[in-house]
Amino acid sequence: MGVSTGGMAVLRALLGALPADFPLPVLAVQHVSPLSGGELALLLDETCAIRVKEADDQEVPTGGTVYLAPANYHLLLEPEGSLALSLDPPVNFSRPSIDVLFESAAEALGDALIGVVLSGVGSDGSRGLRCIKERGGTAVVQDPADAIAPGMPLNALKLVTPDYRLTLAQMPQLFITLSEQ
């Protein structure tokens, strides 16, 4: 999933509604200052039932854990299933970039992937969400009317017809249902 403006509130609401035993790993990019430490992961971990941590290079994601991209690093999913952190140049003026995560995960997981574009300014995530759809994955976009900043959802909707266009409050139940399939 990818989020920018309003990210802390959005992630707290969404991840806070997932159970500790959620069976899938969650990979997330939040646009943050390059100087930020791991505070976001710590704050979310304290308030969510599901475990939240910053991703480590070469870590293998497991169910019941949210892996946040560290500040100033792209987060990728390698074809063999491990995480990779990269200092490659910013994409869409962002590092970490949502598109970088989505495109690598789409290549690794194909139709088993669920991509989610949430509140934010700009177009990061749109191209990656299209890649997810092209590889048979599931595309979810936050309803722009429900977003703190509707730019990213609106731009995603210009490129992709999502499988689901939902409010933030509707998403946790969808993710639980999809994880059971």
Automatic annotation (TrEMBL):
It comes from the Bacteria. It comes from Geomonas silvestris. Keywords: Chemotaxis, Hydrolase. The lineage of its organism: Bacteria, Pseudomonadati, Thermodesulfobacteriota, Desulfuromonadia, Geobacterales. It catalyses: [protein]-L-glutamate 5-O-methyl ester + H2O = L-glutamyl-[protein] + methanol + H(+). GO terms for biological process: chemotaxis. InterPro entries: CheB_C (IPR035909), Sig_transdc_resp-reg_Me-estase (IPR000673). This is protein-glutamate methylesterase. Residues 1-159 form the CheB-type methylesterase domain. The active site is at S4, H31, D124. It is an enzyme of class 3 (hydrolase). The keyword Hydrolase applies.
